[in-house]
Amino acid sequence: MSERFAIVVDGTACLTPELERELDVRWLPLHVDIGGDTYTAGVDLTPDEFYAKIAAPGVLTGTSQPSMGECRDVYDVIAGEGTTKILVLTIATELSGTYSVASTTAQAMPGTRIEVVDSRSLAGGISLIATAAGRLRRDGGSFDDAVALARRMAGGISILAVADTLEYLRRSGRVSGAAALFGSMLRVKPILEVANGLVYPIDRVRTREKAVARMKEIIAQRIPAGARIYACTLHTNEPARARALGEWAQERYHCVEHWVAEAGPVIGARAGPGVVGLCWYRDGDEEARLAAKPA
After folding, report:
1. Least enclosed by CB within 10 Å: which of 156, 182, 193, 234?
2. Considering the entire predicted model, what is its pTM?
3. Which range among 7-16, 95-104, 144-153, 176-185 shows the weakest confidence by mean pLDDT?
4. CA pair distance 186, 272, nearest whole angstrom
5. Element containing residue 139 per DSSP (H, E)
6. What is the pLDDT of residues 12-22, one digit of tens each?
7. Helix residue spans in 253-295 (DSSP H)
8. How far apart are CA 171 and CA 173, in angstroms?
């Protein structure tokens, strides 16, 4: 019989409703600021509502982490169901204070064992760690095994994405190494990489179509055709382009796992609409990281 434990992700994760139900993944709320109003992503703000609200010129957006009270509410609901072990996966500490809040709140619940893991990533990076932990639990793995797996996968998920602009990331201070792209270069389509908790622009192309093609070239350079991968395709209000990118990935690679998902208002507020990207890791990485000795 599988050991009972809960898996919690923060509001930057991007899962389909089917995966969320199948693997029983819970959520920590994150908030989106639009002008002078604050909303809770997935509670009183859907992606469609978010993009409609920011369509007006000059609208400023921001995000904020959950409060300790909100974290406590999530933990209390799970503990009230009789589950005393919780794995929490959060966005990288460089990008949000969610890890700190989740960890501090966990210390105030001595009757429940809560392990908070900094994913060193965001969005699809968190999501792919969550699905790996969910499969491990489904297959009879222990809570300790799931925590070890999550810690070893942290920072190991590859993410490449094309954005319409760096303006949203520039405003939020969430992009590194991009000084040369600011100003007149804001009109190009940047190709971004998320690595070890930071977002880097690694190339820039004049049109969106050429940028997506260039991103595919980079992915193809990093993963040989036919390789077995676990992957998800994410987007911010670009479902058609995301589906096309996902179809390309599935045609080129053996996708053991793949889904397409809207990244949600929290990512949209920081990266802007028009983002499409692929998140992945190679088959066997889970077992290799689990078997590896601690550093």
Report:
1. 182
2. 0.91
3. 176-185
4. 13
5. none
6. 999 999 999 99
7. 265-271, 285-291
8. 6
What is the set of domains in the chain, with CATH numbers? Answer: 6-153 (3.40.50.10170), 158-291 (3.30.1180.10)
Question: Can you tell me the distance from the alpha carbon of 223 to that of 132, in angstroms, rounded to the nearest whole number?
Answer: 20
Residue 67 has pLDDT above 90, yes or no: yes
The count of other CB atoms within 10 Å of the CB of residue 27 is: 17
CA distance 266 to 5: 27
Please report, as a single letter, which amino acid is at residue 191.
I
- Per the structure block, which two tokens stand in for 146? 């799931």
Alpha-carbon gap, residue 159 to 157, rounded angstroms: 6
Residue 47, amino acid: P
The two three-digit tokens of residue 284, written as one number: 């066997």
Lay out the sheet containing 6-10: strands in order across.
Answer: 25-28, 6-10, 85-90, 113-118
Q: Helix, strand, coil: what percent of the chain each, to 5?
A: 40, 25, 35
Residue 125 in tokens:
């990076």
Helix (H, G, I), strand (E, B) or coil at 173: coil
The one-letter amino acid at 226:
G
**Which residue type sits at 153?**
M
Q: Tens digits of per-residue pLDDT, 230-284?
A: 999 999 999 999 999 999 999 999 999 999 999 999 999 888 899 999 999 998 7
